[in-house]
Each structure stands twice: as structure tokens, then as C-alpha cells.
Amino acid sequence: MKAIIDAVSHYNYFITFFLMVAGLYVVISRGNMIKKLIGLTLFQSSVYLLYVAPGKIIGGTAPIIDPAFKVYSNPLPHVLILTAIVVGVATLALGLALVVRINEAYGTIEEDEIFARDGEI
Amino acid sequence: MKAIEPHLPVLPVLIPLFGALFSAFFRRGASAWLVALVATWLAAAVSCWLLAKALATGMPISYQLGGWAVPWGIEYRVDVLNGFVGALVTTIGAVIMPYARRSVAHEIDQHVQAWFYTMYLLCMTGLLGITLTGDAFNVFVFLEVSSLSTYVLIAMGRHRRAVLAAYQYLIVGTIGATFYVIGIGLLYLVTGSLNLADISARLATAPPEFARPVVTALGFLTIGICLKLALFPLHVWLPNAYAYAPSVATVFLAATATKVAVYLLLRFFFTVFGAGIGLASVPIPELLFVFSIAAMFIASFSAAFENNAKRMLAYSSIAQIGYITLGIALANQSGLTGSIVHLLNHAIMKATLFMALGAVAFRLGVVQISDLAGLGRKMPVTMATFVVAGLGIIGVPGTAGFISKWHLALGALEKGMWPLVFAIVSSSLIALVYIGRVVEVAYFREPAAAANKAHDPPISMLAPMLLLAAATIWFGLDTRASVGIAAEGAKVLLGGLK
């Protein structure tokens, strides 16, 4: 019983790691460059959850000091992830821009077709 | 001077950052080049000053960014080791600059030349940030600053494969960086800190039941960083990235980017996890031995069978990374000294080699080994620098490469692992094969019709090559500075955090 309660109370981590592995799998298994980027974004987003969830303290409130409250959530992981989200957006934007350029140069965004056109590199 | 000295640790990061901002305002490549020239030389001067100060004090120099107290605020923490890596990155970056103007003007479209210098400076900012900061999350931010600008630098190559190489590197690099963040996240959950020194102190006193997340974090961090430093078999992004990037970008990346990743690995292995819990159960050194030796041989063989000269040197880089990680796996004074001094020696030698190829591309626009035929007579100075640096890669006594391998071999003998000495020597023989192929083609074959009009590049491109080729010899004969600092750095690592 305790094992079940343990597992259920950590449900957020199960979701996090499912998304993480799913994203990584998409990156590895798909040959379409846009789909790869979607997988990559999923993978990165799961890490946001990994950081954000532990920052929440049950019963805690926003970290603004007030005599009425004793327990506060930890704002630091949230701030860190704000930075990580910006980085993720920049990476995705650059990745998409590269895919546009690849499409212009090769006329396709399927990896196997590109390799066929250029010879294996 | 008195006014800026307290802010010394952060200046090498700020100067290229603001240089990047300034150069982005310019339309003309020449103006942006001038900004980049000033910024890189200023950064190099400041970094060398910082290194001198770190050597003189013998203690880590701590700087609190924005005046926020450690460990809550971001700390810049400079000791001999990262001062050395910082000075290496900026000095190489500055030496390349005079070379860059002609080469970039030749290889990159007029309207994006200014952007090239902006990205170059941003990449340098990122690399220096990783090196000098003492904050784990700050490392990630700078890792992405350097990575994103690297992808752009690579994509500026002339061949359409350059964009493809940039995309592939983006995918792999982002996975690596994300692995790094996962590792840092797990460490943060265990220790509640992001300051590397503080994490290390808290890990030392962490209760044993936290061993599992700490070991998991170590795994994620190791793989993430090893993707960045292109440890075999995580190296697949590197050959194409180096082969199709513009010459100047290749020179800079080959000389500095992987070195900074190696520094990060050293920092985490020895400073952060050195005193950690439950690490005896993880066979990290054993794994590193296997992958290092595999890199030394397999990547060298790939280089020996490669026809594109830039890709050949890229494979050679992977093999040389193998030597560096071999020293990390040895984890004794001589081995680490060999690793750290090889950061410098390999940076000098590989920069020279790629610069020589860049000079050939400048005159002839080609980088196939067969196209180098007869260039020993047509471009005598260029090929001479190639041969000197090539001898260094092989590890001939009297060149810098020999010094690194000598210390690695000493480290192996101290551990009683004498077969490693044979591995080092025999993999050097493979280097003799691939460098020898180029020498044979360049000196003993008749030049092709296209190469008949080729001659050495202008003095602005020759001078940096000659300087670095001379440094290859210099650091092979007079090792007081290079090995002296590397030995100090190894002591810092082995002594844990002071």
C-alpha cells in the first residue's frame, strides 16, 4: 500500500520522465527535421517540469513576505526555468530557421532524402 | 587600473559581450572586424592579467556578481586552472583576428560579414562565461550562448552541407545541454545550491540515502558534457561541423570550444564530485579509459582514410580529445598535467593546421587532400607551418605535442599501466600516416594546373600562422610556463576545493 501511495504522490515525476523519454525518442526515431525539433522541444519542456514541480511547497504561498503567512514556495527554480524557456525558444527558432534554409538548399526536410541527394556524409 | 582590478574576473566575459553588441550595429564587415579585433585583444590582455593574478595569489579569486552574497548570488571564481583556460581561449581568439579579415572577406557574403564577427564574439563570450563562472546554472546559460552562436557560425559555410551540419549539431548540442540541466536539477534537489563550491561542500556532508540522485546527476552531467567535448562515440556531429564551417570559425572552434568542455568535465569530476558520496560504485575512470583509447585509434584511422583535409583534421581532433580524457581517467598528477597542457598544445597545433588549410582555401578554394599537390613549392611558408604543427600532432620530440604525450605516459607509468604507453605511441604512428599523406602530396607531387598560380597568402594571414607554429616549437622546448601552470592546475584539481 505504501508503495502505491509513494508512486501516486510522485505522479508529477512520472509525467516528467515520460515526456523526457518520449521527446528523446522522437528526436532519435524521426527523419523529418520539423518532427525532430518537436521532439527536442518536448524533451526540453519536460526538464522545465523537473525544476518547477519541486519548487512548489504544499500549503506554501507566493514568496512575498507577509506576517499572515509562514510557508512560502521556492521561487528560485521558477526563475531558473524562465531563463531555460528563453533559451529553449531561441534554440527552436534557430532550428526552424536552419530547416527553412535546408529546405531551400535541398528541396526536402527528410533526412534520408537529403543524404541520398548528397551522398552519405 | 586600480579601479578595474576588483572587477577583473568578470571583464573577460563582458568585453566580448559588449564587442558583440557594438559590431552588430555595423553594416560593413571591415568595421565589425575592427571592433572584434579591439575586443579580442582587450579580452586577451585582461585574461592574461587575471591568470597572472591567480598564479600570484595561489587562492581562488572570488567575485560576487552584482554584489549578491555567495552562495545566493552568482559567483565568478577564478583559480589557476580556469584562469589558464580563459587566457587560452582569449589569446587564440585574438591571434586569429588578423588572419580573419582576409579569410572572412573571401569566404562569407558581404552583407553577413558583420554578423559573422558578432557571432564570433558571442561564441567567445559564452566560452569565457563557462570557464570563469562558479555557478552551475550560469554555466548552462553561457553554454547555450556559445552553442547557439556556434550553430550560426557553422551555417555560414559556403557549401549547403554547412547548414545541414549546423542543424545536426543543434540537435546533438541541445540534447547535451539539456542533459546538463537535468544533472544540475538533480544536484539542486539534493543540495539546494547552484554554486559549484557550495554544491561540493554540501555533497561531502550529504546523507548516504542521497547517493542515487547524485550518481544519476553525475551520469547526466558526464554524458551532456561529453557530447559537447566530442568524446568518442559522442563525436558524430564534429567532423561535418568542422569540415563545412568557414575557415576562421573552424580554427576558433577547433582550438577552443572542445577545450572549454574538457575544463567543465574536469571541474565537475574533481571539484564538485571529488568529495561526493557513493561515487566509488560508478566505474567512470574505467569507461573513460575505454572511450579514450577507442577515440585515439578509431578516430585516427578515420583520419587516415579521409580525403577531405578539413575532415581529416577534425577526426584528428577527436583522437586528440582521447589523449586529454585519457589523462583525466588516470587522475594522477602527471596524467592531469598532461591533459591540461595538451589543452594548450593541441589548441596551438590544431589552430595552425586549420589556418594553413584556410590559407589554401583562400588561394585555391579547395580542401581535398589531392588538391594540395605541389603546394609545398607553391605555398612554401603555409605548408611549412602545416608540417611543423603536423609534427606536433604526431608528437615528435622538440614540439609541443611531445610534451603532452610525455606527461601522459609518465602518468600511465605511475599507475603501473604500461600498456597505455604503447597505446599512446602506436596511435601517434597513425597520426604519422595521416599527416604524412598530406606532406607526401604537398611536397612530392607535381602541382595541378589550378595550383600553378597559387602563392602564399598575404602577411596578415601568414603572421598568425607563423606565430602559432613558432609557439608549437617554443612550448616543445621551453615548458616552464606551460607545464608549470598545468601542474599547478592539476594540483588544484587533486587537492579538491581550497
Please sum up the structure shown.
The complex is a heterodimer of chains A (121) and B (498). Chain A is 74% helix and 0% strand. Chain A contains five helices and no strands.
Helix and strand composition category of chain B: mainly alpha
Strand content of chain A: under 5%
Fraction in helix of chain B:
over 70%
| Total of helices of chain B | 19
Instruction: Write down the secondary-structure element order of chain A.
Output: HHHHH
Of all protein chain pairs, which has the greatest interface, and how many residues does each chain bring to it?
A: A-B, 31 and 26 residues
Detailed description of the structure:
The complex is a heterodimer of chains A (121) and B (498). Chain A is an all-alpha fold and 121 residues long. Chain A has one domain (2-118): Helix Hairpins (Orthogonal Bundle), CATH 1.10.287. Chain A is built from 5 helices and no strands. The longest helix of chain A is centred in the C-terminal third of the chain and has 31 residues, at 76-106. Chain A starts with a helix and ends with a helix. In chain A, 23% of the residues are buried. Chain B has 498 residues and is mainly alpha-helical. Chain B has helices at residues 11-23, 29-57, 80-107, 113-132, 136-155, 161-191, 196-204, 211-229, 238-244, 247-272, 284-304, 309-330, 333-364, 375-378, 380-394, 400-414, 418-444, 459-477, 480-494; strands spanning 61-64, 75-78. Chain B has a two-stranded antiparallel ribbon with strand order 1-2. The longest helix of chain B is centred in the C-terminal third of the chain and has 32 residues, at 333-364. Chain B is globular, with a radius of gyration of 21 Å. The mean pLDDT of chain B is 89. Chain A binds chain B through residues 20, 24, 27, 33, 36-37, 40, 43-44, 47, 50-51, 54, 77, 80, 83-84, 87, 90-91, 94-95, 98-99, 101-102, 105-106, 114, 118, 121, and chain B through 137, 140-141, 144, 148, 151-152, 155, 160-161, 163-164, 166-167, 170-171, 174-175, 178, 181-182, 185, 188-189, 194, 240.
